[in-house]
Amino acid sequence: MKRIIFATSNEGKMKEIRMILADMDVEIVSLKEAGIQADIIEDGTTFEENAIIKATEIHKLTGEWVLADDSGLEVDYLDKAPGIYSARFMGEDTSYHIKNNEIIKRLENAKDEERSARFVCVIAAVIDNGEVMTTRATIEGRIGYKEEGDNGFGYDPIMYLPEYGTTTAGLSPEQKNEISHRGKALRLMKEKLEKYLV
């Protein structure tokens, strides 16, 4: 069975990834499970560049198939911030509860339609021969007025989806994987990778 290293140690993310790629005939391991400790400097200016940096660095170390994602929240009212700095917004060790409430505070004068936002996810893959592929997907919504929902992680509790009447943290894991930016980007990547798994 083909092993794919996913360049993350985020347990919440790994859980989602395994659910979404469950029907692929591959073993997906995190950096931690692969015993890799790498301090990767993500100095790209786009989600694509950062995802490729992560995937190529781990591929150089291992020679194995590597997947990496770079994802984040773009808030139109804040000129698309925090964007590629979503994980580092207000410092990497700052809790998302604090980050979420800071974004809500910055939008206190924004009306409903001014609160438009999206989650962006780019997946990069590097396979045996060093070929690099990327896929990108988004999910559109609005920044809510308070944190809501117990599922999900990160900015999920403030990403309100008007058509579902809840935040992405209020969706079931199955529902979220069906419509999320990461779910869509991973399924697009799965289509690309399956050609190489024959």
Outline the fold blueprint.
Layout: E1 2-6, H1 11-20, E2 26-30, H2 47-62, E3 65-75, E4 81-82, H3 96-106, E5 116-126, E6 132-143, E7 159-161, E8 166-167, H4 173-179, H5 181-194
Parallel strand pairs: 1-2, 1-3
Antiparallel strand pairs: 3-4, 3-5, 5-6, 6-7, 7-8
Helix pairs in contact: 4-5
Overview of the structural elements:
The protein is an alpha+beta fold and 198 residues long. It has a single domain (2-194), classed as Maf protein, CATH 3.90.950.10. Helix content is 29%, strand content 26%. It contains five helices and eight strands. Strands 1, 2, 3, 4, 5, 6, 7 and 8 form an eight-stranded mixed sheet that branches. Helix 4 crosses helix 5 (181-194). The longest helix is centred in the N-terminal third of the chain and has 16 residues, at 47-62. The model has no long low-confidence stretch (mean pLDDT 95).
Report the C-alpha radius of gyration, rounded.
Answer: 17 Å
> What is the arithmetic mean of pLDDT?
95
Give the count of structural domains.
1
Helical element count?
Answer: 5
- The second-level CATH architecture is Alpha-Beta Complex
Helix/strand order, N-terminal first:
EHEHEEHEEEEHH
Number of strands: 8
Strand content: 25-35%
Low-confidence stretches: none
Instruction: Choose one word for the global shape.
Output: globular
Question: What structural category characterises the helix and strand content?
Answer: alpha+beta
Distance between the termini: 12 Å
CATH topology: Maf protein
Quickly name the level 1 CATH class. Answer: Alpha Beta
> How would a textbook summarize the main sheet?
8 strands, mixed
What level of helicity do the residues show? 25-40%
